[in-house]
Design goal:
With 99 residues, this protein is of the alpha+beta class. 38% of the residues lie in helices and 14% in strands.
Length: 99
């Protein structure tokens, strides 16, 4: 391909819509893990993932304001950590009388 085009060409092979199916399953996994984190109030760490898979997890949970994600580790052993957002403590105001 590169010789015919005269430049470097990226080729993506997607057999039987594997990439879209994988993205759907990772989105479902992200939502499930996010719900588990919300219920337990404890962080969870995924297994080692490729950069593309980690990106899908991060994007799936980006809009959920009750959890946060970050990547941890190095090289092929990088994982996604999903942790709950600590809610700020609200202070109760004592009954104040206004004149």
């Amino acid at each position: 391909m590169s010789r015919q085009a005269g430049e470097n060409v990226s080729v993506i092979v997607d057999t039987e819509n594997y990439r879209s199916k994988r993205e759907l399953s990772l989105n479902d996994l992200a939502r499930q893990l996010g719900e588990k984190v919300k219920k337990s109030h404890r962080s969870l760490t995924t297994g080692p993932m490729s950069a593309q898979d980690r990106r899908i997890i991060h994007l799936a949970l980006k809009e959920d304001h009750e959890v946060r994600t970050k990547s941890k580790g190095e090289g092929n052993l990088r994982r996604v950590v999903i942790y709950p957002v600590k809610k700020p403590k609200t202070t109760r105001k004592t009954d104040e009388k206004t004149d």
